Each structure stands twice: as C-alpha cells, then as structure tokens.
What does this fold into?
Amino acid sequence: MKTPSSIKPGDKIRIVSPAGKVAEKYVMPAVEWLTQQGYKVELGKHVFDAHFQFAGTDAERLEDLQTALDDPETAAIICSRGGYGTVRIIDKLDCSNYRKHSKWLVGFSDITILHTCINNLGVATIHGAMPRYFFDDNNQPTENLETLMQILTGQPVRYKIKKQDFNRQGITVGELVGGNLSIISSLQGTRYELDTRGKILFLEDIDEFLYHTDRMIYQLKLSGKLENLAGLIVGDFTDMKDNESPFGKTVHEIIAEAVAEFDYPVCFGFPAGHDKRNLALAFGEKWELEVSEQEVMLGIVD
It folds into this structure.
C-alpha cells in the first residue's frame, strides 16, 4: 500500500464535489483557514454547481474529480460533501495516472466508494471530516479538523477511547478499510467490492432502519466479509429508525450477534461517522487496535 506524501505549506489542495450539491457557506470558511495555514487552495470548476440534488451533471462532477486526480501538483483532494452521486461516475474515472501522482483523498459517507476504489489501486486515503465539519458553532477548529491535519501532515496518530458494552478484548494489527455500511453493501458483487481479508474493518451509517442494518450486516456475513477480519471497529450509527413494531435489538446488539462466532477484537462506539466527533482514519494504512477491559487504543503503526 502506497502512502501519499505528507502535505506542507505551499502545497496545492483541491476541493471537489463528486456527489451532492453544497452551499458556499459550508466550504469557503475551510478555504480561508487552509489558505491562512499557507496552502494553495483550488476549487473545482463545478464545486458549487447544482443539477437537481447533485453538484452538477455527472459529466461536470467527473471532470472536476478527474482533473484533481491527474494533477501532479495537487497534494490532497478534499471532497466538499457526501450525499449521493459518486456511484454514477466511478466507472468513468481513469485512474491510470493516479498511482504515479498519488495524493491524499479526504471524505466520508458517499465518498466510501472512492476510498474503496483508490485503496484497491494500492493507495491510502483518509476517512475524515469534510469542510462543513471543520469548525464548531463558535467558528473554532474542531477535533475533526485537528486529527485530519495530523494525518495529512504525517504526524503520529493514536486514539484512546472509553470502553463500551459488547467490546471484545484483544490486540491486533492490520490494514484499516471500510466506511459507510450502506455504500459497502451496495458495492457487493461489483469490481469495487471491499476486500476485508486480514483487515481491520470500520463501519458507520446514518438514518437507516434497524432491520435494514441487520440485513446489510448479514449480507456481509453471508458473503464471508466478516469471517477473516483482523478486527472490527464500529463507528457511529446516527439517527437510526425503527418500525412501528420494534425490531427488538440495538445496532450494537445486531453487530455483536453477527460476529459472535469469530474471535477477533471488536471495538464499539468509535467516534467516527456522522456525529459531531469524526476522528480521522487513514484507510489502507496499518493500525494497531488494542481493546482492553478498561479502554480502547487505536494508532497508526510506524
């Protein structure tokens, strides 16, 4: 797995919108902050375009993303938002030059598709906050932004979180992969299907029915995606919904039940996903996961 070079002041950062449309007010404060830090920020030509729910037509969104991937002077690509739409352009991307000019790609949610595609090329990416989540209500940089910049600039990253119910103890080292459960599920049977063998799998989601989540988890299990993991990290499952006739299990209970027969360490409640805390994770990099009775430690292996 190739790790893109760390970014430094003077480097170019491109912001693109490969999926849902986004308002300028959610992006421009990030542009201003990054510029103040000494980076050259370039917006995609169509970053604020709107075509129904999308940030421009498929062709326009593809043009911006392709330009960013191909540009040898770009050190990092930050996606403006998720939403929906990346799947409509993924098969038209030409990644033949990307490995020669690899650079960090940042995003989460719908951007899971790009993580999987680029990780399959052998290049690491960052599951992390997008511009709307760089600042708190007082316009101060969030922990989300701080941890993102730590990875982008090549600083050591090590997280410590409190223990959760259903955690399974153990220590493991493996390449971290994953992202949004709904996106991962939708890629099953395609050439962008996630390879989980020997990996630490991270999962998160938002606004799903519990029974639908149960179905997606069992889809992963029945296809062997949960069988040979090095470890499992369960992030935020935000704003989950239930039927009028209750499903009868929480998200954590659903996942714990599905992986009960396996023996790898499992961490529940890691603060990454669609809640306010969205700690940055480098997919494709090797991480050490230590789940103990007292706490969970997760850090990039040097």
